[in-house]
Please model this.
Amino acid sequence: MKPAISQVFNEKATGIAYKVVGHSEKTEDIFAIPIFGGKATGMPEKFAPNYFSDVERFRQPDFDPYKIDKREEDLTDSEKRVRDARLVAIEKLKEDPRLLNPGWRNKEINFISKKTNSGLKRTAIFNLLKLWWVHGPDDNALLPKYENSGGSGKRKKRTTNEIGRLNEVPKKIVLLTSSDLEKIGQGYRTHFIKNPKNSLRQARIDFLATEKYKKEEAPSLKQFIYWGEAKNNYAETIAYRAGKITMQKDIRLLSGTARDNNFGPNTEYMIDSTIDNISMVQISSPDRYFGRTTLYPIVDVFSSLITGVYITPEHPSYITACLGLINSAEDKVEFCKRYSIEITHDDWPSNYVPGRLLADRGELLSNMSSTITKNLGIGISNTPSYRPDLKAYVEKQIHILQMRIKGLLYNNGLIDKNDAPRISQDSRKQAVLNMNDITKLVILEILHFNKNHWMSDYPMTPEMRAEIKEPTPINIYLWGISKGLGVVRKLDKHVMWRNCLPRRPAKVTRTGIELKPHHFTVVNAEHENILDKIRFSGKNDCEIAFHPSYFKDSYLLHEGIFYPLKLKGAVDYLNYFEFEDFVVDLNDRKTIHDREAIAREVEKRRKQMKITDDAQKRRAKKVDVNNAKEYRKDETEIQREKVIVEVQAPEDKVVKENDKSNFQQKNSPPSALPSFINDLQNLNI
Model:
């Protein structure tokens, strides 16, 4: 079978391609033009019909690699004008079947170049025909190849003439040597790429100051920019100027989205916290400003549905993050009812536990977060530092929530330092909203977002496009639940809370459960046998789950059951962290005390050694040890007389019987004895 016109055959040994351009009218021979490097190496040649059928010698590509595939609307006016002019020049030749006859072809081309007013030379007409055969056969084969113009990547020849259009004021051309180009490349890298604060003009000035060029030999600003960019990598320039963090976060090409690894609702949640931009007052006392709140939104990655929210006056911590997670699994009808907002389950259907939780390197990076993984079966991942783009969905929700209620907060305690004038009112004095107010505002905004936010760029599957008429977060979420996708697991909020609490090992002693410096006991008396069972089992170790900031919420964990605990006695430390801080502070003070105590002990020892040294000087040559009893009697009389003289009252002073006036002098510290002892003394008992 004869090859079709425009069919291409590549010769494996030489790399030359042959493109079929016609068939012989009298025989079955075919005409093909040889092509190498995308250009015709000669005119069409005649081949036998089965010449290209040898598969070991020729390989046939699946498509014509030389065909120019451009749409008419994509062409510029200049390209169309050049193409149409070329078509006119060879219009009669390209359709004539005798064109493949070399004798007739040469005769006609000579006639066109000499006898007509085409203005084309013989060589130019041959080149147009080659373009027609190689890239055709269609009109776009004669399009100009502007992309090959200008010698891209090749340096122009040095000349003393000014390149480009003439300037009104003639200037001297500075010819740069290869050494100059290397210096410019290095100077561009040093003074511009690695110094983000420098402009191009200032970088050139710094370069000239460093290299000490003469005035008439200094490269121009255009030369500095051109050769600086040519000698350095553009991507490296952007990375250095913007910084590695900004490059990774805002500039780099995106290879995918967070949804690529999520196949249904509740597969992965994202959580983050931010300090809200509103000054707040107490609920009970509207005249008492207490600061700003912390906002925790939780977002489902698959649908962008906001599954939970927690607002607290506390600073971000592990416990506050856990409370936000618990809210995402809580029944939202009951939650909204606490704030006098009536909804149905379909208005906010998220009350499930996620399979994974993505957070930044903050609250959920501590060892306490392992409690969530072990007890609740929720995997926790943490993003690298300075990479909020890896949890972009929750970051965007924080921005949307704050921007949408920003107008309501104006003159109501809004903190907006970016837009506020330099002289503005104190937002603390404008504060009128309390915790209930801001929570209601955020809940209403979340309900509106979940139900009405149109996600036009959501990557919907054909099945989703057929069944989801309105691509809103709640519709996508409910569609995934109805199809059995993702994770559908519920937990009671009380169970979640107790399993989120951090745990510490403790000991059961006679005084109760000891977690220094505190002692706990069970709330219910019938559970006291549990303590005896642990204590007399041979190992008195146990485990306590407790709220680090509120010790009243503590539990004994034994055989998978939580037993409520209460503190014993008066406790000075309200929470575990206060005690840890006290211990650290106490150890620091002990280090200072020990340093001073050693100095005082050295001084004491020095005085003691002086006493023993003085005694050594009084040492007798011989000590009589035979009359010890008589010597003791003499020494006793001497010491007794000395003591009586010391305690004897002066001769002119009369002392009354049972006189207690000197028991406690004025300005002396109060007695350390219990009050009932003082009362007995006053009764003269």
About this structure: Residues 8-59 form one domain. Confidence is low (pLDDT under 50) at residues 663-674, 679-685.
